[in-house]
Design brief:
There is one protein chain. The mean pLDDT is 86. The N and C termini lie far apart (155 Å). The protein is rod-shaped, with a radius of gyration of 45 Å. The protein is 98% helix and 0% strand. By secondary structure, the protein is an all-alpha fold.
Length: 108
């Protein structure tokens, strides 16, 4: 009788452990499926974000190129303005010299 009770108790414990194992296993499988779905959703979101990010990156690169070009043009304008400041007095001096040379010729 004790032997039968021990076997029955052992059978009950085994069933309970099996049910607990199955419940844990089922729970883990569900968590795994949820995790896989979340990963797929994140991949889709990442792809969607890459397009605007790439466009933004191209825009920033273009803007930086334009800013650099603007700086270069300003530098060229400053250099040309400085050159004009240097040439202006020389121009006036040359005109005066040419006028001095031409005055006697015009009077004749």
């Amino acid at each position: 009788m004790l032997q039968g009770s021990a076997n029955l108790l052992e059978s009950l414990i085994w069933r309970i452990q099996k049910e607990e194992f199955n419940e844990r296993n089922c729970s883990l499988q569900q968590k795994h499926k949820v995790g896989e779905r979340e990963i797929e959703e994140l991949k889709i979101r990442e792809k969607m974000m890459q397009k605007p990010t790439r466009k933004l990156s191209l825009y920033i690169q273009l803007k930086n190129k334009l800013v650099d070009r603007k700086k270069n043009l300003r530098q060229q304008i400053r250099e040309l303005s400085n050159e004009l400041r240097v040439l202006e007095p020389r121009k006036d001096q040359k005109i005066s010299e040419l006028n001095a040379i031409m005055q006697p010729r015009i009077k004749h």
